[in-house]
Amino acid sequence: MNTFKKGKIGEESAEKYLIEMGYTLVTRNFKAHPGEIDLVMTSGCDLVFVEVKAWKSLPVMDLEISIDARKQRRIIATSQVFMLQNQCLCQGKTIRYDVVFVDGGGEITHIKDAFGDY
User: Which of 58, 73, 76, 91 has the fewest CB atoms lying closer than 10 Å?
Assistant: First the structure.
């Protein structure tokens, strides 16, 4: 299975998991300069930008390293474009960045507010 297909399966698993946890999907794969956000969702009063990492054989700790400060800045910058384009959706919402890891066996690790005080 190629990397693109693994990524899509991981995103689908993460989306399904988050919906089961009460999140609502706003959009998938939002693209803008400078990057892409895998999932944009709402959870209560939060607008949540979700980065999904789906790798077959690496432990979660190695996956966490893959979301370095540079990647975080790209996600944040892309989310700002989303918010400018969707201002009415963002009104009254708290912004949060979550990360969902999906391992080769489909096990999910969800880190809420993964970027902390960006």
Answer: 91
Neighbours of 13 (CB within 10 A): 18
Residues forming beta bridges with residue 54, ordered by sequence position: 102
Read off the CATH number of the domain in which 39 is found: 3.40.1350.10
Structure tokens, 17: 């998991």
Count structural domains, the chain: 1
**Which residues make Cβ contacts (< 8 Å) with residue 30, sequence separation at least 6?**
36, 37, 40, 78, 82
> How would you write the pLDDT of the chain (118 residues) with one tens digit per residue?
666 676 788 899 999 999 999 999 999 999 999 899 999 999 999 999 999 988 766 555 666 667 888 999 999 999 999 999 999 988 999 999 999 998 878 889 999 999 876 5
